[in-house]
Amino acid sequence: MRLFKLFLILFLLLFASCLSFKQPSIKNDYYTLEYDPPNFKDLSPLPYILQVDRFEVSPLYNTTNIVYREDGFKRDIYNYHKWRANPSDLVTYFLARDLRECGIFKAAFSLSNRAVSTHIIKGSVDEFFEYDKSSGWEAVLGLNITLCSENEPDISKSIIFQKRYSTREIFNEKNPQALASSMSKAMSKLSKLIILDIYNSISKAK
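Predicted structure:
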């Protein structure tokens, strides 16, 4: 009898382990931004080197989880859908890429390159979320940008401009891929505006 019980316990343990192995693992889907850098064919290149510091990010969006809003004062997240990187890193990378690829500055780097620069761009990601409204869905992106001159020893005089940028892009299907597409459009739009403001401000300050 004792031997039978021992075999029964072993059988149940083996059966339970087989069931656990057959359980499908939870799969997370990861999303990023995708868009082409802006083109400024009519602008003459400037001989300046820009450095983009890593952006700060609001505590509400300091996560790789995709955040959405349905009601006031509430923020929720998708359980199995995430951004490939923190919104701070996404915005920093794509703005630095756009500044580098647009061809109207001598060079542009992110902070990690430790390059000698003439100007520094600092910023924060204030909004980066999906807004679920009764009339539809929107990708909401809000950035705060500060442009500083690296060669000005007086900090109070080194700030060339500080400005907030915000936009919303509508999408028609409630899914993370549609959100990523609309957030890409939002970043593309703000990046172009930011770069034009940087270009014009530096040109006037020459």
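Summary: The beta strands are 29-31, 46-52, 56-57, 65-69, 76-83, 105-110, 119-133, 136-149, 159-171.
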